[in-house]
Queue: 2 jobs
Job 1
Amino acid sequence: METSEFVIGQRWVSHSDTALGLGIVTDISGRRVTLGFPAADEERTYAIDNAPLSRIVYQQGEEIETFEGERYTVRAVETIDGVLMYHADDGENIQPISEVKLAGSVNFSAPHQRLFAGQFDRNGAFRLRVATLQHMDRLRASPAQGLIGARTQHLPHQLYIAHEVARRHAPRVLLADEVGLGKTIEAGLILHYQLQTGRARRALIVVPDSLIHQWLVEMLRRFNLRFSIVDQARYDDLKAEEDDVDALMNHIFGDDDAVNPFEADQLVLCSLDFLVRSEKARKDAFAAGWDLMVVDEAHHLAWSPEQASPEYEVVERLSEASQGLLLLTATPEQIGLASHFARLRLLDPARFHDLEAFRQEEQQYEVINQVVRRLQQSPETLSPEDQEALAGWLGDELPELLGRDDAYQSVIDALLDRHGTGRVLFRNTRAAIQGFPERQPLPEPLPCPALYDTERYGLEGLAPEQSVPEERWLAEDPRVAWLEKKLAGLRPAKVVVICARASTAMALEHYLQLRAGIRSAAFHEHLSLIERDRAAAYFADSEQGAQALICSEIGSEGRNFQFAHHLVLFDLPANPDLLEQRIGRLDRIGQTDAIRIHIPYLQGTSQEVQYRWFQEGLNAFAESCAVGVAVQEHVHGEWQLALDGDGSRMEPLVAATAAETARLKEMLHNGRDALIELNSCRTEEASALIADIEAEENAAGVRDYMLQAFDILGVDLEDHSEHADILKPGEQFQTGMVAELPEDGLTVTWDRQQALQREDMAFMSWEHPVVTGVMDSVTSAGLGKAALANLSVKALPPGTLLLEAVFAVHCPAPETLQLTRYLPVSPLRLVVDVNGRDLSKALPHDRLNELCSNIRRRTAQAIVPKIRAEVETMVDHAERLADPHLASLRERALDRVEEGFGPEIRRLEALRKVNPAIRDQEVDFLRDQLASARSSLEHASLALEGIRVIVTS
Ligand SMILES: Nc1ncnc2c1ncn2[C@@H]1O[C@H](COP(=O)(O)OP(=O)(O)OP(=O)(O)O)[C@@H](O)[C@H]1O
């Protein structure tokens, strides 16, 4: 329709501002036309000659809606004095409805409707839309999904665990890698995966006070996960926002509607100490409910059959309020086997319900491991006894397992699942991972001053300075002068000094700083979080920073100081796991040098006893010693006597310790540890996963895609350096389409290695929020849904019309079902002409992109109404051609759903017969998921996602 045919009462849309909705012509005077836009409550006047308006004419079969919200189907259209009268069907009667009565809001969701309404885009936008659908499709089906976006090195043991755990529904596991192997990273990967794939939305991280900031920073810089800290101050602030009326209502009617600060954000980080202290906060944290909870340094959760610690009780209660639970500790048995058992019970109460049974089970591990080894080495020659043992463990499931293609691996998997802690416990050791630097113990025996004559032995003797005035021990304890000299000698090397108590750390730091002129900082639990972070940053600063950081035991737990290579143990802890925690501050991933462990100890005191016990008995300085606590329990009497000063006990103690250490290590090596190791990192699977991730990173060309998007969305790109660019909103910037792009720009790198070195640059992977945000905006907005292009080729006569159509599978289903894994976007592209010929193969998308050019908007506006009937015919043809594909897509999806759920359900059912490790809830959940996935797939349909109408010339 020509724009000169404006008549009052007609309905038009503005294609330059689609948000205005359906306009109504209210005035025509001279060469100007005025429209009211009721949906936007606005009026606009245009020059008639070049008004950016398109006439809206609904066709037979389309749905219309009136101002009153009544809906009709159009049966016929007639024009009365230039204004349309729709013959509208309400399901019972057909009645005339004038277009004047139509509602002001329009939503042209179908691409051809957008085209007819003049809401079409340039070719590039259509290309972007198609590319977005294709990338989404590939990514959703990729095993690398959820693991691509982390700014981490690809370490097999971490990725293996993350992949194993993160795919589960509501995973509940103990991550128990040795100190510094990256449990935080593993937890981050799992969180990232679960959040990216919609398996989790609300997550809570609970850590000791001292680690709040480290976790906050680590989650943000490595995973782009923005956690909000809820501490006492924020909690009070949020509570105070509750207005007086709310407060009064809550007071009268109970607390139900009260503001819950834990509900203010989806990702919350808070300290365990805070929850233990505040009953109100605790209640709110329980009430908020979580999909996934992470508890770091979980060895502090002490439990015994007689009594649970307050920390344990808080986490126990919280663990009931959370679907998933990740407990992190490097030293799971630090405070004894009972507490270890109790933590496993938090993860799976049905499986770990009896401490005694748990103890007995551990005895079996060695036998199981022997059979597993024989299975791995030569499955064909398995003895009748082994076969019998297997039948005993696996029952009537064994024949089925042995009948599989990968029979022996299946049997091993089944054994690990059904017996032992296979499903809930993951532990990697330095020995299994390798490549860690050497640890060199450097003992410094020093004479014991008379000052400590009464404090030489017993536990007091380990930190005798506690019982004398500060001034005196600082002056007379030879460890102080030795430390001062050592630091001066090592300057400028960074040195971490750890001692048991905060008071010792404070006094030492004061002394070194003020009296010895050594740049140092103290780091302990009495500092506020900000002070602690400031101290750590001061120490980390390589140019102006402190040379020494004087830490207390608790203050330094979990911290990353691998940039330092010298550790001074100002005293020695009683517990071997605490020693490992201390050395672990430096002995971490990222440590590049040998670690020098300086051990000043006072001769003829319990410090000497402890030094020799660690060194000669446990060899705990040079190597990580996982059995230390168990050995200590075994030799406890001797150890106590030696510590109390009975010199005659020293040699027998060392000998007994060495023997027990060797025995336990051997036993664990053959038993429990071997089983856990088998489960914690399967190298082949890990390598395949890394290959998948790297293929996705290298081949898919996230940068190419984003350049295409930036061009359309008005983001300017400046070259920064190799692999790096600066992104800035340009003049044509489409606000709202690119989330998280700061006004003053963002420096980004596309390269993982560079991202690891340059933390100031954002790491643009397929899973960076800018990239996922653009993909979501493109698919959810109308961008590129309809385009008009010109094609000039000799083979086709001028004036020929073609339609390039892209369909995608739509399947309304709850996001937690994760149906996209089985039924990815599956974009289906077709090219048809007016006669319904399928030209999809003859005219591939890339070729058309090269050959097609844009048509000027005004020309296009004029063309569209003239080709409407042909376009509709071609859309019909395309839909007809697309239709048969739906059945096969659906079938394939159903097969995949069965493949995904079926074996897992069968496995869990079999498992439950021999082992209660499987929660009923888990099996029922999977069954429900399978049923609901099946029924959702019944409703899958192919929706037209975009069209490009091509006119030849
Ligand atoms: N894949 C990785 N890429 C880069 N850095 C890593 C990776 N894994 C771990 N690191 C770094 O190694 C150090 C140790 O990691 P992390 O803090 O996760 O270990 P942890 O096992 O939780 O330690 P702890 O037992 O002390 O709590 C950290 O500085 C971490 O940033």
Job 2
Amino acid sequence: MKKTIKIRVPGTTANCGPGFDSIGIACTIYNEIEFTFTPAGPIEIVIEGEGAGLLPETADNVIIKAVQMVFDRIYSRYPHCQQSRWQGIRLHMNNAIPLSRGLGSSAAAIVAGLVAANELCGNNLNKEEILEIASAMEGHPDNVAPAVYGGITVSVAEASQVHCIRFIPKADFSMVVAIPEFNLSTKLARKVLPDSVPFQDAVFNIGRTALLVSSLYEGKLDFLQYALIDKIHQPYRSKLIPGMPEVFTAARKAGALGAALSGAGPCLIAFALSDLNKIGKAMVNTFSQHNVKAYYKVLGIDQEGAKII
Ligand SMILES: Nc1ncnc2c1ncn2[C@@H]1O[C@H](COP(=O)(O)OP(=O)(O)OP(=O)(O)O)[C@@H](O)[C@H]1O
Ligand SMILES: N[C@@H](CCO)C(=O)O
């Protein structure tokens, strides 16, 4: 007996400037993963696209860890199911989300594993529980929430709970992402952050985060020029991404509403209504002036989140 489940999961951009560890947007860039579960057998992992030859092809892969998390949660709730635990797992990944660039590759992997295992087990866990496990695995909820729900999410983790509101903005916009050809792990990008920030910087971010959420929700996108500015993580991370402020300026000059670091970087993301290719080229050119090879993609907002296909 075997069961096959295919899932599509979006990449995500987190923080969006001031909303550190809280705001996230699901983007129209996807990994597709086919899971084949058998009662007995080895773990087999085949990877095409991003991460091929780089990601672990063993039980150390975070997708397998996520599957095991769901099995553990369900079997602790229903111990009589222990006997039917699935041992054999084959993953066939087709990945478009680049690794360690700030587009939520780890969140996508975690959410894919959780949602697929939950489907296998009859959807015993609801989306809130999936989000809570995902947030605990990732360490913060801002990427995993939009990967689960799609759209734009505002999330706060408190003990084991995640409080999350998801919405679709009243006005549509595009995101132009400049993707440098170097990796920056979230772990390293968090190491450069200070233990505390000046009170005035905290106040600066609180106002802008509130303005960001309301301008996105209301579709009053002219406010993004003020609302995407951050003082509590981007300035510290700037030294890891050559040309970051200049790329922001180039994006705005080419017609973007505003720009920010995507997640922990190194991708930089511009929000725009028009001139998308002009903005992308300006960002890539400015990166190249700082000896950073980069390419760009134009993405929209994914509205569905992780989905069985
Ligand atoms: N498709 C995948 N399958 C398994 N593991 C993955 C996959 N994609 C990413 N990972 C794991 O996640 C790590 C990258 O996570 P990291 O948090 O550094 O970057 P990111 O999630 O791409 O960026 P950000 O969190 O800033 O958006 C990889 O080194 C790998 O361990
Ligand atoms: N909020 C996270 C997103 C990246 O995982 C950070 O900026 O470190």
